[in-house]
Predict the 3D structure of the following.
Amino acid sequence: MHFKGNKMTTDIQRLVALASDKTVIYVEDEDCMRKEIGEYLGGVFKDVVIVKDGIEALEKYDPDTIDLVMTEISMAEKGGLDLIREIKSICPEQETLVVSEPMSTSSFFDSIHIGVDGYILKPVKQRELYSQLIKTLTKIEVRNQSDAYQRASQAFEKEKSELSYSLLQETIENHHKALISLVELIEEKDSYTAGHSLRVANYSKIIAQELGCSEDECTLVYEAGILHDIGKINIPDEVLHKPGRLTDDEMVIMRSHVTLGYDILRESSDLSPTILEVVRDHHERLDGSGYPNGKNENELSQ
């Protein structure tokens, strides 16, 4: 695969930085695709395990060494979704990508229920491939930073030293930076939405200040505004960046971003539960006509 242009070069550099210390297992039963994609992955990841079906993938899967599972969906020997279902039973937090033809809405939600984290559509385009890899590896970075925060927090509680406090603050900052990078990845492809989350955060904070909220409350509102659309990282690009009106099925998929965002942030132990609730409920309406749960004014104020 060949990449041209300054933007392309920058993204390849970003991908290499994220992948150079990670291992991916790639599952594909089509020989040509397995060779082409396998060679590309080998150029950016530290290690690549290439297998031809889900059965062989399960035999070679090791949750302690595999950072990413990338699999074709339609395979004669144990399909990709069945493979991911079994892998998630072994390691629920395992990041997974599927390579497939365009999915129906029901198949998309089945894949979400199983725990699929991202989608690469056939025929595979180089731009979409590295874009999805960057998004997924950035999510892995978020999880790693969250784990680092938990370790630093435990160390601080045990030692209460200046060094452990400094380490705790550093891990919190790094984790927040990783979260913000996810937001930037969502918005960078679309000039219309670029800066949307920052604008929402700024306006929300101004409104909170005018309502007489405390400084801490205004900060929380600002942080929730920055992160409110983070679930869009799991929405397929052909829906997220589709020009024109979405179909009814595509709208259902788009609306799932609120619960997807809640699930992503729920793994982040240093975030306020209120931020998670705002992310989940930011499309609810006072009259109960919003989504995902149709909450009304009384339910939202609880």
